[in-house]
Amino acid sequence: KCYFVGQKLINEAVGPSGRGKEEFRYQEEGGEEKKTPLYEEHLKLGAKFVSFAGYKMPLSYTSIGEEHRAVRETAGLFDVAHMGILEISGEDAASFLDAVTTNYIRWIKQGESQYAHILDPDGRILDDVMIYCRGGDRYMMVANAVNEKKIWTWLSAVNSGKYLIDRDYPEKEVEGKAHLRDLKDTSSGKDQKVDLALQGPNSLAILKKLTEEKEAKGKLARIRPGEFIETKLAGVEMLISRTGYTGEDVGYEIYLHPEDAPLIWKLLLKEGKEFGVRPAGLGARDSTRIEAGLPLYGHELAGRYDIGSMGAGYGLFVKLHKPYFIGKKRFLEREAERKMEIVRFKMKVRGVRAVKFGDPVVAAKGRYIGHVTSCALVEGIQLGLAYVDRSYVKEGTKIRIFVLPREGKVPPERAKDELILGDKVLLPEEALVLSRFPMPEILSANVERREEK
């Protein structure tokens, strides 16, 4: 068992069993660039492509700005079939998930979802995931595409009982075994799943156009944030959740068999035409999530700056009342030493050279306080996220950003007392700290729903 009263005393008296647990190591694998089941549809729509997480993905179809605006004003349709989709099932599935994630899995029941982080034994984030309860002993987990194989390998390692999950109690294992399946793998047969995302205020009206049944339309309308239904639209079995990565209150993710994805993609664009739907690429997915203050793994979570849950502003999803989850003790130790936090910011003026990941951030009087983690152009002004000293996170704080040359090399400058006529000196651009989340009701919807119960 992962935890029981008196565990520490027993461990001190008996000592660790020393059964030779292996240290988990994951090596990124190369390989041929993959394509989603919608690749041919993207070609027909004239998409501009970019390589992302091992996939050839659409960056945009018209312009990132137009697609961003569609998400906010009408609706945007995203191909997110690159995301990892796993199934965790069996009588010990809930116990397994409670051990490997920071949230409390037993708070959700069938038809509800939950956001959580997966930590390693040292309290560092392996990924942030969404978990959907499809039954008392059956869950679906959606992982970031860049971490798809790593999370599958980690969950399999934990499930095997052969790998170290707790440095203080090396003999520790999860309670029971879960059954794991990769729902994107062909071995899952008819249960295979890929993900589409329909996001924006007209999304519900568009989904309703896929059915003539009054009961089905009613079910769609009753889905609350964080909830989902499993139904059939246009003759296709699918799981429809009111979730997304854009910050929109009205937005849905559609999980269906990869063979059905092209049909539903084309139907949503056709039936949604009168509602202003647009296909949207990764560019708009990034700009909308930045505007909403949502983190991206490798930028606002983990990555170069080793950002944890609390530093990202997501302590809400770390349930410290749980007696145990993998990495909990080390997480608390790291949190006690944390001095930085993610902020959302807006550049003061338009026309500033593109701010990028890693650009230094200084306080109004020039003190170095952190780095930019993400930035995007939204309606002509740059909005971004930065990891900065906690003394400068209050809304309205003035900060400045050194926009470094894109070539990666900062031109050498003379000492200030040695400048001569014509020398150039890099100056920081002004920015303003915004509220951490512009749409707090989206972030807390799941928690508020639990409190209502």
UniProtKB/TrEMBL annotation:
<keyword id="KW-0808">Transferase</keyword>
<protein>
    <submittedName>
        <fullName>Glycine cleavage system aminomethyltransferase GcvT</fullName>
        <ecNumber>2.1.2.10</ecNumber>
    </submittedName>
</protein>
<feature type="binding site">
    <location>
        <position position="253"/>
    </location>
    <ligand>
        <name>substrate</name>
    </ligand>
</feature>
<dbReference type="InterPro" id="IPR029043">
    <property type="entry name" value="GcvT/YgfZ_C"/>
</dbReference>
<dbReference type="InterPro" id="IPR006222">
    <property type="entry name" value="GCVT_N"/>
</dbReference>
<dbReference type="InterPro" id="IPR006223">
    <property type="entry name" value="GcvT"/>
</dbReference>
<dbReference type="GO" id="GO:0032259">
    <property type="term" value="P:methylation"/>
</dbReference>
<dbReference type="GO" id="GO:0006546">
    <property type="term" value="P:glycine catabolic process"/>
</dbReference>
<feature type="domain" description="GCVT N-terminal">
    <location>
        <begin position="38"/>
        <end position="322"/>
    </location>
</feature>
<dbReference type="GO" id="GO:0004047">
    <property type="term" value="F:aminomethyltransferase activity"/>
</dbReference>
<dbReference type="GO" id="GO:0005960">
    <property type="term" value="C:glycine cleavage complex"/>
</dbReference>
<dbReference type="Pfam" id="PF01571">
    <property type="entry name" value="GCV_T"/>
</dbReference>
<dbReference type="InterPro" id="IPR027266">
    <property type="entry name" value="TrmE/GcvT-like"/>
</dbReference>
<dbReference type="GO" id="GO:0008168">
    <property type="term" value="F:methyltransferase activity"/>
</dbReference>
<dbReference type="InterPro" id="IPR028896">
    <property type="entry name" value="GcvT/YgfZ/DmdA"/>
</dbReference>
<comment type="similarity">
    <text>Belongs to the GcvT family.</text>
</comment>
<dbReference type="GO" id="GO:0005829">
    <property type="term" value="C:cytosol"/>
</dbReference>
<keyword id="KW-0489">Methyltransferase</keyword>
